[in-house]
Amino acid sequence: MTADSKVTREIMERFNSAFEAHRPEDLDDLIGEGCVLENTTPAPDGARYEGREACLNFWKGIASSGDLVFEAEEIWASEDRGIIRWQLRWSEREADRVRGVNVMRVRDGKIVEAQGYVKGP
After folding, report:
1. Among the residues of 33-72, which ranges form H helices?
2. What is the mean pLDDT of the chain?
3. What is the C-alpha separation between 85 and 103, in angstroms, rounded?
4. What confidence tier does 79 reach under pLDDT thresholds 50, 70, 90?
5. CATH for 3-118?
6. Strands 31-38 and 110-118, how do they pair?
7. What SUPFAM superfamilies has UniProt attached to this entry (predicted)?
8. pTM beyond cutoff 0.90
């Protein structure tokens, strides 16, 4: 694994941990200026957020919700690209969950691009 891949994987792990631990403040040092996020909804393209503050505010809103339970299925990194496969639950009912993936790019130790996708019905 290259040095860039190690940095990207560390960023992916820290990003995911902020959601699993409901610690939105942990995202502050992870999001870069000029970040662009394409969310999972609404279909088919998802909402687009541009700029550090817009992306950070969106992600902090999700990370702060105690009703949501994120669980990583896999975290992968190569050079400046990272992937997090995850599962999201919003209740104990089996039907109240979704699986998805975030495809991300890291530059200078910060997330600068993210696309979210979910498995549809």
Report:
1. 52-63
2. 96
3. 9
4. very high
5. 3.10.450.50
6. parallel
7. NTF2-like
8. yes
